[in-house]
Amino acid sequence: MNGLGGLNISQHGVGIGLVQLQLPLTVTKADLARQTQLVVDLVAKARRNQPGMDLVVFPEYALHGLSMDINPEIMCDLDGPEVAAFKTACRENAIWGCFSIMERNPGGMPYNSGIVIDDQGELKLYYRKMHPWVPVEPWEPGDLGIPVIDGPKGAKLALIICHDGMFPEMARECAYKGAEIMIRTAGYTAPIRESWRFTNQSNAFCNLMVTASVCMCGSDGTFDSMGEGMICDFEGTIIAHGTSGRVNEIITAEVRPDLVREARLGWGGGKQHLPDRPSRLCRGRRRCGRCALQLHARPRRRHLSAALGGRREGHRRHPLRL
Question: For residues 274 and 265, what is the distance between their CA atoms, to the nearest angstrom?
Answer without folding.
Answer: 8
